[in-house]
Amino acid sequence: MKKTEEINEKQKIFCREYILDFNASRAAIAAGYGKSGARQQGQRLLTYTVIQEELKTLMEKKSRLLGEKWDLTEENIIADLKEIKERCMTAKPVTIRVDGEEIETGEWVFNPGGAIKATVKLGEHIGMFKKDKGNVEETIESLLDLANKGKDK
Q: What is the pTM (predicted TM-score) of this model?
């Protein structure tokens, strides 16, 4: 990590722009750096300790403000994920319309993708999965395979 003495105004603008969408190139351009080298400059700025500290401060402030505005507490988010999982796991009968009347076909469907995503998020929260991207993707793929096998029955 590179270290600079003090954050300057251009770097502060970069940080405020970066937390909007986490696009370092766009943030560098918005802060006044040249378009042609924006990608490299944005990536370089992210290595500076003073920038990392400013981003951490801004993200904590942003999280706190959004949390207060939308009542985003850990308990509420977990409760929402559990509700999503339960709703997605609820099997619903497949119906067809015959002569203006809904008739059940005898088949049932549910939303395995939504259930799996909510379950993975809950698992990540309790540290069940490693944070590396490949492991989570492999877990999601194997869960989707299992869900699809269950649909065929």
A: 0.50
Between the alpha carbon of residue 13 and those of residues 33, 42, 72, 97, 126, the distances in Å are 11, 12, 27, 58, 35
CATH architecture of structural domain 9-70: Orthogonal Bundle (1.10)
| Residue 66 and residue 72 in contact, taking contact as beta carbons nearer than 8 Å | yes
Domain ranges of the chain: 9-70, 74-151
**Average pLDDT by stretches of 10, the chain with 153 residues:** 74 94 94 95 95 93 80 80 85 89 87 83 72 56 64 51
